[in-house]
Amino acid sequence: MLRLVSCAVLAAVALTACTPGADQARSVSPRTAVQATATGVAINKGPTDPAFAADRLRAVDPCGLLDKKTQALVGTPGEAAGNPFTGCQVSMKDGSGQAMQLSLDLGSPISEVKKDATTELAGTRVLETRQGSGCMDKAITQDTPGLGLVLRVDAKGGTDPCEVARKLVTAVLGRLRTAPPAMNNPKGTLAVVDPCALVDKATVDSLVGTSATAQPQQLHECLWRQPGVLLYVTFRMSGDPSMPVLEHKTTPVDLGGLTAYQLPNISTLAGCSVSWWPRATAAASETVVIRYDAEGDSCAKAVAAAKVVAGKLPRS
Q1: Cα(207)–Cα(298) distance, rounded to whole angstroms?
Q2: Which of 136, 251, 253, 271 has a Cα-to-Cα distance from 43 of 20 to 30 A?
Q3: Is the separation of the CB atoms in 271 and 223 below 8 Å?
Q4: pLDDT in tens, 141-182
Q5: Residue 12, phi then psi, degrees to nearest 5
């Protein structure tokens, strides 16, 4: 069972997107189109395996993937905690009894999808980075846009963190293909909702521009942008959205019978965010955040987008 861990509402969100180039396309199956890039890396348009499709990953319990049986492959099992939006974190011990930390995210953005893989695990390209006593393995689950399963290991007791990471990534990829642990989601949860499906084309055309298309950033984040304009929708666990952020007070706005809270973006000269709890369940609850960046009345545009999104989400 996943234990929830909250994260604070951020006033600014770093947004990136990548567009893989290609010089040749060929069909390899009814499901997947692959492009051969100048580096020779095969780039899939969409998930690299049907098991890694975003809608399937949203239904998976990340801490179920790092259960005690999986942890026992690399040491003495410990406690796992997390939530669908931030993944899973584990505190355990390695084979010599020293403390070891694990972190798993099922939908991290990966900008390096064109690079040659460091290794291949369970038939999946993996980019590996050693960082002192830690190691990070990025298993590429989607090429366009680049998304992946990211596992981080911090082992300070002499254990090779990359060896641990490889064992765990191999096990996790196998579970995702054969028996992914299902999230015990409450009715109306945002965890299984595709944020890119919540803003219709007419709204995007009006607020962003006619050439803007949905760009998934993570499993629970999506953006639409053109030069000078950005619309961003994300779901996360956070505290009361009515509370001030860095001493900046929020302003209540009506989304058609639902109260949300408006906050000018602190880190930009032009921009505004609108946040609300679709259903409050605890001190930290699932939160919708709409951000709109552009010159002019960005808060009015953010509220307009928020009304569209709120109208498509279930309410408590």
Answers
A1: 10
A2: 136
A3: no
A4: 998 888 999 999 999 878 999 999 999 999 999 999 999 999
A5: -125, 140
- pLDDT on residue 113: 66
Torsion angles phi and psi, residue 103, rounded to 5: -140, 130
pLDDT of residue 26: 25
Q: Give the tokens for residue 295.
A: 């010159």
Q: Mapped to the 3 state alphabet, what secondary structure does the chain carry?
A: CCCCCCCCCCCCCCCCCCCCCCCEEEECCCCCEEEECCCCCEEECCECCHHHCHHHHHCECHHHHCCHHHHCCCEEEEEEEEECCCEEEEEEEECCCCEEEEEEEEEEECCCCCCCCCEEECCEEEEEEEECCEEEEEEEEECCCCEEEEEEEEECCCCCHHHHHHHHHHHHHHHHHHCCCECCCCCCCCCCCCHHHCCCHHHHHHHCCCCCCCEEEECCEEEEEECCEEEEEEEEEECCCCCCECCECCEEEECCCCEEEEEECCCCCCCEEEEECCCCCCCCEEEEEEEEECCCCHHHHHHHHHHHHHHHCCCC
* Rounded-to-integer distance, Cα 191 and Cα 130, Å: 31
Structural tokens at position 270: 């032009």
Residue 127 forms beta bridges with which residues? 138
How does pLDDT run across 75-99, given as a tens digit for each residue? 999 999 998 898 999 999 999 999 9
**Per-residue CA distances from 108 to 149, 152, 228, 304 (Å):** 6, 12, 25, 28
At residue 37, does pLDDT exceed 90? no
The length of the chain is 316
Distance CA 245, CA 266 (A): 9
Contact assessment for residue 105 and residue 99, using Cβ atoms and an 8 Å cutoff? no
Residues 253, 303: contact at Cβ < 8 Å? Answer: yes
CA 169 to CA 89: how far, in whole Å?
14
Q: Which of 211, 167, 212, 206 is nearest to 66 (CA)?
A: 167
